[in-house]
C-alpha cells in the first residue's frame, strides 16, 4: 500500500484535533458486513473542507456502502465515523436530521419522486425540512438551482419525461437546494453517454467552486475522476489500497491500481 | 441453523411489524400533517375503487336475491326477501366482500407503489434529505384507507339493495317504496354500527399491511411483485381474521 496513504490517515485515528479544523469527515477502522459477507474490513479516510475526493473501486467493493454509512442509511458494525466532529452512530434522531441537512446525497438513479413534477420535487425538501411557507421565496429558490443545473425549462415536467442525464441534474438540484456543506455522489455518471457524463462532471466541479462544497464522488468512470478529483482513493475488497492524485495513481507500481486507468 | 431461523423468522417479522406500527402512531400526532397527500390518497383509494366496488355491491344483492327467492317462495315467505338481503349484506357479506376486494386492489397497489419507491431509492432520498417518509407515505395512506373503506362499503351496501330490488322485479312487479320499507324495517343500528366499526379495522389492516410490505421490500425489481403479492395475501387473511373476531364480539355485545 501507498506510504503516503498511511501517513495521511494515521493522524485521524491517533490525534484528530491536529487536523480537525479542516477535516469534515473522519473515518477510522470502519467495518461493515452483511451476514457472512464482509463489505468494509476496516477503512480509514478523511475528507478535507472544500476538497473533491474520488473513491474508485470495482462494483461490489463497498464504495456505496461507505457513503450510506455516512448519512445513517446503514449503520457500521464497528469503528468511528465522524462528520463535523460528531460520531454519526451516536446521534439522536433530531441530531441526525440536522446533520442530513448539511450532507447532500446524489443517488445513482437520481431518485426523483416520480409522482411529482420537477418543481414539486425541488419544493419537497424546502417545505418539509426547512418548513418554508413563502411561496414566492420557494419558487425563486427552485428557479435559481434549476438555472444552476441548466434545466429551468423542465420545471413543469414529470420525471418520466426526463432523460437519464436530466434526471441526475434535477437530483443534484434537489440536493443543492438545501445548501449542503458536503456532497456525496453515488456514481453520478453511470449509464450516461460520454458527452453527458462530461457535462455532469463539470457541473460537480462548478458546484464545488460556486457553493464551496466538500465532496466524495464514488465512481469507476475515469473521465469523471480526472475532471473532478483533487485526491483519489482506491477501494478493493473492503480496504483502501492506494491514495494520491490522478497522475500519481496513473503511474502507481500496483498493477490493480493502474488497471483502472487503462 | 436453517430450522432455527425458520422458527424465529415469524417472531422477527412480528417484531418488525410492531415497530412499524409504533412509527405510524408516533407520526400521526407529529406536527406538519400532510393534508394534501392525505386528500390525494383519499381520492385515489375512493374514486379509483368506486366502480369496482359499486358493480360488486350491485351484483351481490342481485345474485343473493335470485338465489334465495325460489327457496323462500317454496315456504311462502318471499316477502322476507328484502329483509334477508338487507340483513345479510349490511351485517356480513357487504363488509367482508368489499374488504377482500379492497385488499386485492388497494393493498396491492400501495405495496407495489412503496416497493418501487424503495427499489428506486426514493424513500432513501426522502430520508437523507431530512424529510419524514413515514409521515408523508405511510400515515397518509393508512388514514385514507381507514376513512375510505367504510364509505366504499356503505355505497356497496346501498347498491346491493338496489341490485336486490332489480332482481325481485324480474319475477314479480315489486313496488320500490314497499321493497325498501321491508328492507329497512328489519334493520336496526345494532346491525349497521358494528358493521361500520369493523370496516374501519379492515381499512386499517389493508392500509397497514400494504404500507408495511412495500416499505420493507427488498432491493430489486422482483421484490416489488413480491411486496404486492404478499400484501394481498396478508391483508385478505387479516380481513377474515378480524371478521371472525368482530362477529364474536358483536354477538356478545350487540345482540344480547
UniProtKB/TrEMBL annotation, chain B:
<feature type="transmembrane region" description="Helical">
    <location>
        <begin position="142"/>
        <end position="165"/>
    </location>
</feature>
<dbReference type="Pfam" id="PF02405">
    <property type="entry name" value="MlaE"/>
</dbReference>
<feature type="transmembrane region" description="Helical">
    <location>
        <begin position="192"/>
        <end position="212"/>
    </location>
</feature>
<dbReference type="InterPro" id="IPR003453">
    <property type="entry name" value="ABC_MlaE_roteobac"/>
</dbReference>
<comment type="similarity">
    <text>Belongs to the MlaE permease family.</text>
</comment>
<keyword id="KW-1133">Transmembrane helix</keyword>
<feature type="transmembrane region" description="Helical">
    <location>
        <begin position="80"/>
        <end position="103"/>
    </location>
</feature>
<keyword id="KW-0472">Membrane</keyword>
<keyword id="KW-0812">Transmembrane</keyword>
<dbReference type="InterPro" id="IPR030802">
    <property type="entry name" value="Permease_MalE"/>
</dbReference>
<protein>
    <submittedName>
        <fullName>ABC transporter permease</fullName>
    </submittedName>
</protein>
<feature type="transmembrane region" description="Helical">
    <location>
        <begin position="224"/>
        <end position="247"/>
    </location>
</feature>
<feature type="transmembrane region" description="Helical">
    <location>
        <begin position="50"/>
        <end position="68"/>
    </location>
</feature>
